[in-house]
């Protein structure tokens, strides 16, 4: 069985968030099982080593009244074939998102994917990721140009339902000619809604955790009723992580490698180096945060919560890594000036520093308002760092509170009070050295590899493909 994963980002070629990590890892695990998984994504002029690319196909596609030439580049990374689609002026940007013409970029990418498949039709399933690729199921089913692909099955994975890609019906003319009696499949509340169209037209719909699917049935930014009506083909499959890459015993990015047997000395060695670099006291418990500085991650609560905590207790350190909303960034920089010996922040994305934070921190903060799956908590567990999470989405599926016989610290609301209360619970645990060390060793043994989830997807593919 041949699977094509269509995504707008994939690590290590281009990454903004967890979507890239999933698409960069899931196919490689599937390729060790019983399927052939390939990734197709845009080409990015972002400094990635293009010398490893080979040209495997050239074609042309029409978007509105313009003809665009495209090139398909190919390479192999982590046991997976990666295909990159180049279109001058549209699929050759330095950033993944954030252009005023993103709609055209999303559309041309999907049309290039379909045209490539028309000319290289050896795929049984197209696995679409998020709204950037969610029109593919509709076009396969209803566009005259792609009628020969009607035996290709489609899966749509919703990584984050907050982003749906809506645009005005005025832009329908950009799509290839289709059976206009089916135009209602594109509509949701008066706009063309790619994510809604994908839910309607895909053979199967998944989310990145079971709890997130349950949550979306009740609250999905306007898609609740649709997901309820299509629930028969919906399933939550928990993401995994690349346990070879995220492995403290072999991680080349951290200062000192360690495993379960020497986790205490290993983490202490990393903590010493990181604290020295960021002006923090190694003897104090270190709380880390890694993520986008946006409301979804409840990052707007961090400055007030940390300020409140440090105003009454200076026997604690915080290190925040991330970027996003400018006001949050400014609040964190101000906090650094207020508490220079207890708080530091790195504004921006830094892969190596993220590994440092996982390896050095005693606890990881994830007070998210929305967390479809979350990978950071799984990375932290792998590195013996105890997660502090809000019970939502995949955080609810992967972290059990110590009060319930588990290994993490959980709270129910995204609020300053909940963060403060949870940090105080963590400090009490930290003082109980015997229990703290026991939990550290236990969490490093938890298996969150992709193996089980990769097989679940394969079983799903089999259930929707025609013989």
Task: Itemize the secondary structure elements and their pairings.
Blueprint: E1 2-6, H1 18-30, E2 36-42, E3 54-63, E4 66-77, E5 80-86, H2 102-119, E6 125-129, H3 136-142, E7 153-158, E8 187-188, E9 191-192, H4 194-201, E10 204-207, H5 210-218, H6 224-229, E11 234-236, H7 263-277, E12 286-290, H8 302-312, E13 317-322, H9 326-338, E14 343-347, H10 351-360, E15 363-366, H11 376-382, E16 386-390, H12 393-398, E17 409-411, H13 416-431, H14 433-443, H15 451-464
Parallel strand pairs: 1-2, 1-6, 2-5, 6-7, 7-10, 10-11, 12-13, 12-15, 13-14, 15-16, 16-17
Antiparallel strand pairs: 3-4, 4-5, 8-9
Task: Characterize the structure shown.
It is a single chain. Helix 11 (376-382) links the parallel strand 15 (363-366) and strand 16. The chain has helices at residues 18-30, 102-119, 136-142, 194-201, 210-218, 224-229, 263-277, 302-312, 326-338, 351-360, 376-382, 393-398, 416-431, 433-443, 451-464, and strands spanning 2-6, 36-42, 54-63, 66-77, 80-86, 125-129, 153-158, 187-188, 191-192, 204-207, 234-236, 286-290, 317-322, 343-347, 363-366, 386-390, 409-411. The chain is of the alpha/beta class and 467 residues long. It is built from 15 helices and 17 strands. It has a 9-stranded mixed sheet with strand order 3-4-5-2-1-6-7-10-11, sandwiched between helices. It has a 6-stranded parallel sheet with strand order 14-13-12-15-16-17, with helices on both faces. It folds into 2 domains: 2-240 and 451-464, Rossmann fold (3-Layer(aba) Sandwich), CATH 3.40.50; 260-443, Glycogen Phosphorylase B (Rossmann fold). It is elongated and about 65 Å long. Belongs to the glycosyltransferase 1 family. Bacterial/plant glycogen synthase subfamily. Residues 2-228 form the Starch synthase catalytic domain. Residues 274-430 form the Glycosyl transferase family domain. Keywords: Glycogen biosynthesis, Glycosyltransferase, Transferase.
């Amino acid at each position: 069985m041949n699977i094509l994963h269509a995504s707008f980002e994939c690590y290590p070629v281009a990454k903004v968030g967890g979507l890239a990590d999933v698409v960069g890892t899931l196919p490689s695990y599937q390729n060790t099982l019983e399927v052939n998984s390939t990734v197709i994504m845009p080409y990015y002029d972002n400094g990635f080593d293009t010398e490893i690319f080979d040209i495997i196909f050239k074609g042309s596609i029409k978007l509105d009244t313009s003809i665009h030439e495209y090139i398909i580049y190919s390479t192999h990374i982590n046991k997976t074939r990666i295909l990159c689609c180049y279109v001058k002026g549209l699929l050759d940007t330095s950033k993944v998102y954030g252009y005023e013409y993103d709609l055209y970029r999303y559309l041309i990418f999907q049309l290039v994917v379909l045209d490539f498949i028309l000319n290289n039709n050896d795929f049984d399933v197209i696995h679409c990721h998020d709204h950037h690729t969610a029109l593919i199921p509709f076009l396969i089913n209803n566009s005259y140009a792609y009628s020969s692909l009607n035996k290709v099955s489609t899966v749509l994975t919703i990584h984050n339902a907050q982003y749906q890609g809506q645009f005005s019906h005025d832009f329908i003319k950009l799509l290839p000619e289709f059976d206009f009696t089916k135009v209602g499949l594109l509509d949701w509340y008066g706009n063309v809604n790619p994510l809604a169209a994908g839910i309607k037209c895909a053979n199967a719909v998944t989310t990145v955790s079971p709890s997130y699917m349950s949550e979306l049935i009740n609250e999905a930014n306007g898609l609740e009723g649709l997901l309820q009506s299509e629930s028969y083909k919906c399933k939550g499959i928990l993401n995994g992580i690349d346990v070879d890459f995220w492995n403290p015993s072999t991680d080349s990015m951290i200062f000192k490698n360690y495993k379960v047997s020497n986790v205490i000395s290993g983490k202490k060695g990393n903590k010493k180096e990181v604290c020295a670099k960021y002006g923090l006291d190694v003897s104090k418990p270190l709380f880390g945060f890694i993520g986008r500085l946006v409301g979804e991650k409840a990052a707007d609560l961090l400055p007030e919560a940390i300020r409140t905590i440090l105003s009454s207790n200076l026997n604690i350190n915080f290190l925040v890594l991330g970027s996003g909303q400018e006001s949050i960034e400014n609040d964190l920089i101000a906090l650094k000036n207020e508490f220079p010996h207890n708080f530091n922040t790195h504004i921006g994305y830094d892969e190596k520093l993220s590994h440092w934070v996982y390896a050095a921190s005693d606890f990881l903060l994830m007070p998210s308002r929305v967390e479809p799956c979350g990978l950071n908590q799984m990375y932290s567990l792998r590195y013996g760092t105890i997660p502090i999470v809000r019970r939502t989405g995949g955080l609810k599926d992967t972290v059990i509170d110590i009060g319930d016989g588990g290994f993490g610290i959980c709270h129910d609301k995204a609020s300053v009070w909940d963060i403060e209360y949870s940090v105080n619970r963590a400090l009490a645990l930290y003082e109980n050295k015997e229990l703290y060390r026991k939990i550290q060793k236990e969490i490093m043994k938890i298996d969150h590899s992709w193996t089980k989830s990769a097989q679940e997807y394969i079983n799903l593919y089999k259930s929707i493909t025609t013989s």
